[in-house]
Amino acid sequence: MQLILETLINNHGFETSQIKTDAESLAHWGKDWTKHFAPAPSVIVFPKSTEQVQSVVKLANEYGIVITPSGGRTGLSAGAVASHGEIVLSLDKMNKIGEFFPADRMVEIEAGVITEQLQQFAEDKGLYYPVDFASAGSSQIGGNIGTNAGGIKVIRYGMTRNWVLGLTVVTGKGDILQLNRGMIKNATGYDLRHLFIGAEGTLGIVTKAQIKLERAPQDLTVMVFGMDKFEHVMHVLSAFQSQIDLTAFEFFDDVAIEKLMATGHVQEPFEARTKYYALLEFEAPYEPIMDKAMAMFEQCMENGWIVDGVMSQNLSQAAELWKLREYISETISVFTPYKNDVSVLISYVPEFIRDIESVVNSNYPDFEICWFGHIGDGNLHLNILKPENLSKDEFFKKCQSVNDLVFATVQKYGGSVSAEHGVGMTKKPYLNYTRSESEIEYLKALKQVFDPNAIMNRGKIFDV
Ligand SMILES: O=C(O)CC[C@@H](O)C(=O)O
Ligand SMILES: [Zn+2]
Fold first, then answer.
1. pTM for this one?
2. Residue 186, SS3 per DSSP
3. Which residue has the least CA distance to atom 3 on ligand 1?
4. Which CATH class is domain 2-93?
5. CB atoms inside a 10 Å sphere around CB 350
6. Which CATH number is correct for 220-329, 3.30.70.2190, 3.30.310.70, 3.30.470.20, 2.30.110.10?
């Protein structure tokens, strides 16, 4: 390792401040937001250019050392955890926003740009970057690309993949590739850009991206509803969708609201609690849209689907209501939750929830369960909360023993064991519930092409 570090300094322009080996740094950059694995990398390097990234990759190949690419480390599947003496390659120092192409509504950025930084840039240009989630203040675009991050606006704007017009990557072999160069139309065969989106850094490292921006939404209005039954949540979703283009449709349950209220940071939406809550958002720049929304709300009340409801009157009220949904993940993190991030077709959601509910109720009778998610996209976050008197290891073991039943249910509906958080290490043992054996063989063959020595984020997604 010492030889690698000396070569980086002597031959590739690394300054000593771009290399960290102290215990505190190893612990900090060696992990993401998951709590399953202890970090144990050998070194953290902070390249400042694609060429410096390339030099690290070439040396890692030469010496057979694994690289863990590292962004904002807000991941929830241990995709950015380095627990086996890896070189952590942090993109923290590659955080510049480059050229803006107004006619293309496109901007070139480095992979270490923070999601919020890009959102702010877009806003300054009168535009919008629509991929959004609670960790936007620290997640990096490179990491978002690595997991094809989703979030709270997918129902209208899709996942990160939809916004990536081009990528610069260093492959696991050490080649620099420019993929698609920002074009909208380019029918010249395989689009390798899409292989790197969602690859979790297992094929190479994304160093730059060309990102599409969107027209800014107008007069966003938020409604929150309280409901007694889960099927009513789905009725309300399809009722509103039949009339209005929603920009979000989220749900959460009474456990989530109870934990949120205990923090004192969020206001109770209604006088009386209900079992389920839905938050929906839409653009309402014209009266007729608002009239439609109000009419639909009244109809849902009459049908007995909605027990209580509230609507934002301005943007700050809308932001206040969003806290009800956006603060959930961080609020429950103190309970060391065991996380599931599953999805099925929206059409199957009601039946799927019924099945999953019976699996978890009979297998976790003593555990508190928090249900929430992007139910408008068929994506459910199922968080099992650790009882205080149980050790973390015992708790995770117990949860893992139920996983096969949970994922068999996902498989029954042709769903995904990871809707938006990625596979990383925590979902690796369950990949076969979503991907067939022959599909996984193709994935492995692709990995072999881009990263023949398996130095890129080894141990993530699947074992090579
Ligand atoms: O903590 C979770 O399970 C989900 C986190 C995030 O994807 C969210 O939707 O808030
Ligand atoms: Zn989510």
1. 0.96
2. coil
3. 381
4. alpha beta
5. 15
6. 3.30.70.2190
State which amino acid sits at residue 27. A
Indicate the DSSP class of residue 456.
Answer: B
Ligand 1 centroid to Cα of residue 329, in Å, is: 5
| pLDDT above 90 for 364 | no
Banded pLDDT at 29 (limits 50, 70, 90): very high
pLDDT digits (tens, 9 = 90+) for 125-136: 999 999 999 999
Render pLDDT for 139-185 as a digit per residue (tens, 0 to 9). Answer: 999 999 999 999 999 999 999 999 999 999 999 999 999 999 999 99
- Residue that has been written with the tokens 């015992």 in this structure: 394
> Which residues in the chain are classed under CATH 3.30.43.10?
2-93
For atom 6 of ligand 1, the residue with the nearest CA is: 329
Give the helix ranges, DSSP H, for 172-241.
193-196, 230-241
**What is the DSSP code string of 87-152?**
EEEE-TT---EEEEEGGGTEEEEETT-BHHHHHHHHHHTTEE-----GGGGT-BHHHHHHHT---T
CA of 12 to the centre of ligand 1 (A): 39
Give the model's pLDDT for residue 169. 99
Q: Where in the chain is the domain with CATH 3.30.70.2740?
A: 336-439
Tell whether ligand 1 has an atom less than 6 A from the beta carbon of residue 77: no
Please give the structure tokens belonging to residue 260. Answer: 């949120």
Residue found by looking up tokens 């998951």 in the block = 34
CATH of domain 97-215: 3.30.465.10
CATH 3.30.465.10 boundaries in the chain: 97-215
The CATH architecture assigned to 336-439 reads 2-Layer Sandwich (3.30)
**Can you spell out the DSSP letters for 335-388?**
G-PEEEEEE--GGGHHHHHHHHHHHHHHH-TTSEEEEEEEGGGTEEEEEEEPPT
Residue bearing the CA closest to ligand 1, atom 8: 329
Neighbour-count burial of 275, counting CB atoms closer than 10 A to its CB (0-12 exposed, 13-18 middle, 19+ buried): middle
How far, in Å, from the CA of 369 to the mean position of ligand 2? 16
Q: How far apart are the first and last CA of the chain?
A: 23
Above 90 in pLDDT, residue 310? yes
Chain center to CA of 223: 24
pLDDT class of 448 with cuts at 50, 70, 90: very high
Which residues belong to CATH 3.30.70.2190 in the chain? Answer: 220-329
